[in-house]
Amino acid sequence: MTDHMPDDLSAAGRDLRAYTDELRPKHPVIRNVAGEWVLLRHADVLAAALDHERFSNEVSRYLQVPNGLDGEEHTRFRSVIERHLRHDALEPFVPVFERVAAQLVAELPRGTVLDAVSDIGAVFAVRAQCEWLGWPAELEPRLLEWLEENHAATRSGDQARTADVAEQFDEIIRSVILPRRAADGNAPDDVTTRLCREVVDGRLLTEMELVSILRNWTGGDLGSIALCVGVLVAHVAQQPGLAEQLRTASDNEVEAVIDEVLRLPAPFVSNRGITTCPVRIGGQDIPTGARVKLNWTSANRDEAVFDNNRFDPEKNAAANLVYGAGKHVCPGRLLATWELRIALQTLLASVQTIELAPDQKPEREVAPVGGYHRVPVVFI
Questions:
Q1: Where do the domains of the chain lie?
Q2: Per-residue pLDDT tens for 198-227?
Q3: Number of helices and strands in the chain (H, E)
Q4: Are residues 207 and 174 in contact, defined by beta-carbon separation less than 8 angstroms?
Q5: What order do you get walking across the sheet with 354-356 strand by strand?
Q6: Between helices 94-107 and 122-133, what is the axis angle to 10°?
Q7: Contact assessment for residue 41 and residue 28, using Cβ atoms and an 8 Å cutoff
Q8: Does the domain formed by 16-379 have CATH 1.10.630.10?
Q9: Pairing between strand 270-275 and 55-56?
C-alpha cells in the first residue's frame, strides 16, 4: 500500500471493520467510488461531528428530520423530538419493554438453533417500538418483512431498490398517522398521536415532516436494535464469564458494557455531511461542497485512542462514538440503551446458557451494513 491517499476505493462486499482497520494506520482520509471523502480516524471524525459551521448535515435530497437539518431549524425540530425521548417521557414504558422482552424470551425454544438477529432482535425491536408508539400489533408481520427487505436492498447497493423499499415503509407510516389526523379529538392517546399534534413555527407538523420523524424513529431504529441484539448475544456467547457478571451487575454497569460491546463491531456505520467551505482535515485539503462521510465504525476502533482496542467499558466510555457526537448526536440514545439493556437482562435471567450453534459461526454483515447478518445460537 502506498503512502499517498488512495482514490476510488470501495468497501462494498467487505467486512467494514477489517477493511478500515487495514486502511486507517496509513490513510486517515480516503476517497471512495462515490467521490465521498471518508474520515477514518477518531480525532478527525469527532472534529467534523463537532464543527457545525464547516460541515453541514443538509446532504440528502430527501427530508430528514432532524438529522438532515442545520442551525436554528435543526434546534427547533430537535426540541420537539426530544420531548418524546427524555427520561421522564420514556420511564413509563420501562415495564412495557420488560413485559415485551419476557413474553418473547418465554416463547423461544430451548435446544434449537435460533438467529439472534432475526428471531430475537428484530422481533423484540418491532414489538417494543409498536408498544411505545401505539401502533397496532397486527403490523408486526409487515414490519418484520420490511426489515428483511430493507437489509437486502441496502446490501445490494441498488439505489432504485432501496428507494422502493423506503417508500414501502413511508406507506406503513401513513397508514398509522392519516387516521389519527382525520380523527381529530377521537384519536388514541399515544406517542404517535401526540407527535401528530406537535407545533413548529406556529403550525402543525406537516405529513412529510411526520413521516420523516417516524421513519427515523422506526425505520432506522428497528434495524439498528435488531443488529445490536445480534452483536450483544454473539459477544456473550463467546465470553461465557460475562453472562454471570452481567446477571449481578447494576443497570448502569450493564449499559456501560453494552456501549463497549457495540463499539467494537460497530453496527452504526457512518453519517454523511457536506463542506460549506474549503477544509483541511486528516492532512487532506477538501474543497467546498464536497461530500464527507464520518465513519463511526473506523473511529470507534482507532487503536491510538482505545489502547489497541482493549475491552474496557469504563476507560473507553468518554471516547465512544457509538451514538455519534455533537448537536446531531442520536436523540434516541436513551430509548435504545434501555431497550437493549432490558432485552439482554431478560434473556440472561431466563436462560441458563447461551452458546453458539455447533459448527456454525456468526456471519458478519458487509458494507454498507455493520454488525452481524446472522448469529446462530442455542439457549439451554
A1: 16-379
A2: 999 999 999 999 999 999 898 778 889 999
A3: 16, 14
A4: yes
A5: 114-115, 376-379, 354-356
A6: 150
A7: yes
A8: yes
A9: antiparallel
